[in-house]
């Protein structure tokens, strides 16, 4: 058996891991901003800076939403994306275009559109996922299956609705919906940054509570946590965060799964005070570093979500296969 | 004091707890005994507000468990369930320290640290303090969980099958520690036990359940009779006196 480390030794190690992670992430960010700039530096830095800001907002949103979701559902495999949250958001957006017409939407403030879509998503998610998770002890395989089915249903409905839309309007719709890191709306970026900032502060203030919730429902109730209320609020926060990241850059299904599990592994703990910043740094590292490598080294454009999907999918299957051995 | 007032609970068509009214007095160890499926664990879970009752109320020191705010109740009543598989990785000391959450909200004071140390020492966990729970044997892990519950510092402690997975030596050790909690610390300990002789040797009072109904309750000596045990377990039991303790021996 490996030597047992004392609590202070573990804390020192974790702090060092987090510092190293921060330094590597900073290097990736610097590389993203500076590598391969040709011509006017002002312009390049401004453009890249805006994309970097979007990445930072998405990184924090994805890390927070995944870790929180896994805490209240008591598992390490399911993420909001695997349960179909992000595709539900795309469906809500598409349904919005169908019902209101693209001309109304295109002229509307993107921030207003985002707010309306988010409220719709939160309402849907509240009904749908509360009924799924309120029942105690669900088999994780049943939930994965449900998530896959729900995701497929949402995608099919989105396709159906987009077929019903006038072809000309559909082009506008595509423009609206399929955002990526290369085309981020500036007004939306400011709004989502504020939303994510407020949520992050709120979450940070409840970290001890989250640590208790992670112990499981019965233990948390025994320790005086109003479990139902906490889970409801967390699912609400998760829905908002997924809406933020999906609205900004579209679905990146497996990023959250990757960074949440990697953060726990690297830091050797489930404590939110360590895992949340660790996961956020890893997400930013994956986005900024990955984009730099793809664009500058391999000369490819905007295929990061495919790479994340490939790596994340493999990790997902590995986790799923390993699960019963616990 | 824990009062059950006409408590009923059904799962589907099966009535698991059937109109139970019962008062568990302050102090000492009370054991809930009965055959499998008699409703012992369900009754305990209702008292610990882990399950809602269909009908009836449970009062802990006069507070209705269904309506009292969680943190208030968590300072009066602590509970340990039978299954404690956790998806998180914790050291023993971290787990025990969670017992102070109802008091300090997760930011431990010097007093909290002292109480954690005390609970660790009481359950002889000091050498294991920095081990992860998954590195422990079943008996050590069970001790760590009970230490967390004790560390919660509540007057009432409810334990569902605390002897699960424990061999004879560790079972005796656990019961001695629980006896100490009741006698030296003045806690009211309520246990679910399936071995009636453990209940007989270590508890002050016994509550006997059968098919969700209360059969009898009272001081241990009054309940350890062949007639009563036959009624509860549906099997002939001889009761012998051994070294001042009543031991039931089933035969058929």
UniProtKB/TrEMBL annotation, chain A:
GO annotation, cellular component aspect: plasma membrane
Subcellular localization, as worded in the UniProt entry: Cell membrane
Segments crossing the lipid bilayer: 18-41, 53-73, 85-106, 112-129, 141-165, 234-262, 274-294, 300-321
Gene3D superfamilies: ABC transporter involved in vitamin B12 uptake, BtuC (1.10.3470.10)
Entry similarity comment: Belongs to the binding-protein-dependent transport system permease family. FecCD subfamily.
Membrane topology according to the record: Multi-pass membrane protein
PANTHER family in alphabetical order: FERRIC ENTEROBACTIN TRANSPORT SYSTEM PERMEASE PROTEIN, PETROBACTIN IMPORT SYSTEM PERMEASE PROTEIN YCLO
One record GO biological process: siderophore-iron import into cell
Record Pfam families: FecCD
UniProt-recorded Gene Ontology molecular function terms: transmembrane transporter activity
Keywords: Cell membrane, Membrane, Transmembrane, Transmembrane helix, Transport
Main subcellular location of this protein, as a coarse class: membrane
Protein name: Iron complex transport system permease protein
TrEMBL record, chain B:
Alphabetical GO biological process terms: iron ion transport
Major localization listed first in the record, in broad terms: membrane
Protein localization: Cell membrane
Name by which UniProt lists this protein: Iron complex transport system ATP-binding protein
Any single GO CC term annotated in Swiss-Prot or TrEMBL for this entry: plasma membrane
Positions in coiled-coil regions: none
Keyword list, A-Z: ATP-binding, Cell membrane, Ion transport, Iron, Iron transport, Membrane, Nucleotide-binding, Transport
Record flagged with keyword Heme: no
Occurrences of domain ABC transporter (ranges): 2-236
Superkingdom field: Bacteria
Membrane topology value: Peripheral membrane protein
Organism: Geodermatophilus pulveris
SUPFAM superfamilies linked: P-loop containing nucleoside triphosphate hydrolases
Annotated GO MF terms: ATP binding; ATP hydrolysis activity
Record-linked CDD domains: ABC_Iron-Siderophores_B12_Hemin
Cross-referenced Pfam families: ABC_tran
């Amino acid at each position: 058996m490996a030597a047992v480390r004392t609590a202070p030794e573990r804390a020192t190690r974790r702090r060092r891991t987090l510092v190293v992670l921060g330094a590597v992430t900073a290097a990736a960010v610097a590389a993203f901003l500076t590598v391969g700039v040709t011509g006017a530096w002002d312009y390049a830095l401004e453009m890249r800076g805006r994309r970097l800001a979007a990445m930072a907002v998405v990184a924090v949103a994805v890390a927070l939403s995944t870790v929180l979701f896994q805490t209240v559902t008591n598992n390490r495999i399911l993420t909001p994306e695997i349960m179909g949250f992000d595709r539900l958001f795309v469906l809500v957006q598409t349904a919005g275009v169908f019902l209101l017409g693209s001309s109304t939407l295109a002229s509307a403030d993107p921030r207003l559109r985002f707010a309306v879509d988010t409220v719709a998503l939160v309402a849907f998610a509240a009904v749908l996922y509360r009924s799924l998770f309120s029942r105690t002890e669900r088999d994780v395989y049943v939930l994965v299956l449900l998530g896959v089915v729900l995701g497929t249903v949402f995608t099919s409905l989105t396709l159906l609705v987009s077929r019903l839309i006038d072809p000309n309007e559909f082009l506008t719709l595509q423009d609206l919906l399929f955002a990526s890191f290369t085309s981020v709306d500036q007004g939306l970026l400011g709004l989502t940054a504020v939303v994510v900032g407020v949520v992050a502060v709120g979450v940070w203030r409840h970290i001890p509570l989250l640590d208790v919730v992670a112990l499981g429902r019965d233990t948390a109730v025994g320790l005086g946590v109003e479990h139902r209320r906490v889970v409801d609020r967390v699912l609400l926060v998760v829905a908002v965060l997924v809406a933020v990241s999906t609205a900004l850059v579209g679905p990146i299904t497996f990023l959250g799964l990757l960074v949440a599990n990697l953060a726990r592994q690297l830091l050797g703990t489930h404590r939110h005070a360590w895992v949340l910043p660790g996961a956020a740094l890893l997400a930013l590292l994956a986005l900024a570093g990955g984009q730099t490598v793809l664009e500058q080294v391999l000369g490819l454009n905007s295929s990061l979500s495919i790479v994340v999907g490939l790596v994340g999918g493999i990790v997902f299957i590995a986790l799923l296969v390993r699960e019963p051995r616990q | 004091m824990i009062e059950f007032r006409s408590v009923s609970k059904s799962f589907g068509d099966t009535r698991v707890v059937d109109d139970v009214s019962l008062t568990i007095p302050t102090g000492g160890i009370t054991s809930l005994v009965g055959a499998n499926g008699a409703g012992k664990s369900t009754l305990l879970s209702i008292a610990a507000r882990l399950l809602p009752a269909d009908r009836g109320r449970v009062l802990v020191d006069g507070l209705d468990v269904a309506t009292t705010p969680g943190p208030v109740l968590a300072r009066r009543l602590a509970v340990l369930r039978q299954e404690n598989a956790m998806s998180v990785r914790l050291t023993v000391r971290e787990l025990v320290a969670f017992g102070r959450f109802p008091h300090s909200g997760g930011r431990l004071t010097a007093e909290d640290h002292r109480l954690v140390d005390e609970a660790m020492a009481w359950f002889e966990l000091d050498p294991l303090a920095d081990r992860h729970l998954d590195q422990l044997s079943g008996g050590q892990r069970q001790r760590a969980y009970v230490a967390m519950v004790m560390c919660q510092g509540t007057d009432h402690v409810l334990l569902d099958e605390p002897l699960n997975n424990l061999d004879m030596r560790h079972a005796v050790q656990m019961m001695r520690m629980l006896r100490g909690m009741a006698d030296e610390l003045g806690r009211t300990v309520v246990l679910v036990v399936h071995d009636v002789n453990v209940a007989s040797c270590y508890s002050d009072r016994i509550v006997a359940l059968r098919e969700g109904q209360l059969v009898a309750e009272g001081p241990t000596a009054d309940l350890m009779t062949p007639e009563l045990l036959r009624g509860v377990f549906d099997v002939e039991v001889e009761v012998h006196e051994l070294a001042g303790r009543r031991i039931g021996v089933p035969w058929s």
